[in-house]
Each structure stands twice: as structure tokens, then as C-alpha cells.
Amino acid sequence: MRISGFAAVFGDDIDTDVIFPARYLAVLDPVEQGRHLFETLGPGVLQSVKQAGVVVGGWNFGCGSSREHAVTAMLGAGVRLVVACSFSRIFFRNAINNGLPVVMCPEILPGAENGTAIEADLAGGSLRAGDRALRFSPLPAELLRILQAGGLWASAGHAATGSAR
Predict the structure, then answer these.
(1) What residues have CB less than 8 Å from 135, skipping those under 6 apart?
(2) Residue, of 43 and 25, whose pLDDT is higher
(3) How many Å apart are CA 12 and CA 29, to the nearest integer?
(4) pTM surpassing 0.85?
(5) Which pLDDT score, from 0 to 100, does residue 163 have?
(6) How far apart are CA 129 and CA 134, in angstroms?
(7) Where are the alpha helices (DSSP H) in 35-127?
(8) CATH number 3.30.450.20 given to 2-155
(9) For the segment 121-161, what is each residue's pLDDT rounded down to a tens digit?
(10) Separation CA 114–CA 92 (nearest Å)
(11) Which residues contact 154 (CB under 8 A, 6 or more apart)?
């Protein structure tokens, strides 16, 4: 499974309230959620994320609340991949469960800047960030199957609803 795009770069400790503000928790449609992605960081951030398609984060990306909205909002905004130095465990699992590919690559920062071309081979454990070739632990076959199916619910043979479950 290969994914490519351009980087929208964030720092360390980006929590779920920054990713998706709590005041919108009643919004369940991922596309509508996506309109509020990174809203607290200013009006231009969402547009740069949509154009980039790949979110690059530092250490402890997705910390804070265990809400799935942070993941489904990214999907609704068209994010195809999140690469970070490390993830909160619950964010990582929510991402896989909802079909959002995530890769842990401690060497991604420093070096990646907004607009850096990113290409990841999830099964092979290779990542190209601009002119840098990086390695990460490949995702296990079970997780790849879930991602290829579009999430855990879809991989279990159920029709995806497109909303947090």
C-alpha cells in the first residue's frame, strides 16, 4: 500500500482538541467535521492540510481525549496519511480502526517542511520525504488489511457509515 502527497507539518504534542475542537463533538458527518479540522490554529491551516494530503507531526501526536472525531475529521478533509515521530496509542488505534493510515517515523522531523513531497510504502516500511529516504517499522498484515478495507467496521464485512461509531 503506497500513499503520496505533500506535507503539512505540525510540532510536538498536538492534541485532539487542536485537531478537532470539542465544541463540535455533536457533528458526526466526517465531511462537516473536516471543515473544523485544526480550526484553532487559524483560517489558512485547513486549506494547507487539504492541499497537502499528508499530515506530519512531531512527538506524541494525537494526545489528549480518546475521541474518534480527530481521525474522522481528517478523513473528511481528505487527509490520506499521518506521519509522526510518535503517536498517542489511542489516536493510533482510532486511526487504523477508521481507515486512516498512520506511520511512526522518528526521523521525519527535523527535515520535513510544509510542501515537502512525501511517499510511503506501508507494507515495505519505506518513506521518502523530499530527497531523504527513511525507514519505519512496516505495518503488520492485519493492520494493512483493515486499512485497505477502509477501517475495522468495513473489514468486518459491514457497510461503512462514514461516521464515528
Answers:
(1) 105, 125, 126, 127
(2) 25
(3) 28
(4) yes
(5) 45
(6) 8
(7) 43-52, 69-76, 89-98
(8) no
(9) 999 999 999 999 999 999 999 999 999 999 988 766 655 44
(10) 22
(11) 99, 160
